[in-house]
Amino acid sequence: MKDLCFNLTVLLALLFADSAGYGQENTHAAKIADFLKTDLEVRTDSNEWQFTGKFMSLNPQLEHDLLNSFSGHRFWIAEMRFVGHIPPSDYPLIVITDAISGEVVGFVRHLNWGLASKSFTNLFTNYHADNKEDLERKLLVLGALVASTDQRGSVGSIKRKKKALSVDLLWGGAAWRKLQAEYDSAFRIRRMTLLNASQRRGFF
User: What is the pLDDT of residues 142-159, one digit of tens each?
Assistant: First the structure.
């Protein structure tokens, strides 16, 4: 009887945890939707970008790697419609939220556009790596996320320089964007920048 009571207690606890997690996810999704409908940076002044109301699933392995590398944030993919030309086209938008509050803290547009929110540059300054190899892994997983917004996107090779790393983001096999991380002697990320492949910022 004790075993039965214990098992029932565990089952109820698991069901409650799942329900609470699902409820939190819905709350965070609602915050994202409100942000995408009202924020001028993501919409632009002319309201060229409009949220369709749809979210897309991340690759499970990529989602797992992102959680391990950047545990203080969560990464979502929202569908945005660009109405700046005819016919309108839909593009995925990477939305980055605070893991606890669910507030939107940054975003990255589709690989083809290669633009990030102003906050993106300093969004990862609380993270540090164990060594340069660990920092490379973090940069690669973030690069894989950006590249995943286009079916022709992929991640290229890492380039190394003292206190800076970069990875090419390929589009159809050619370097299209560059994700660059500057770091200090303790392997803390000081700055993360999304650049056109031709831009160098003096490091590469």
Answer: 999 999 999 999 999 999
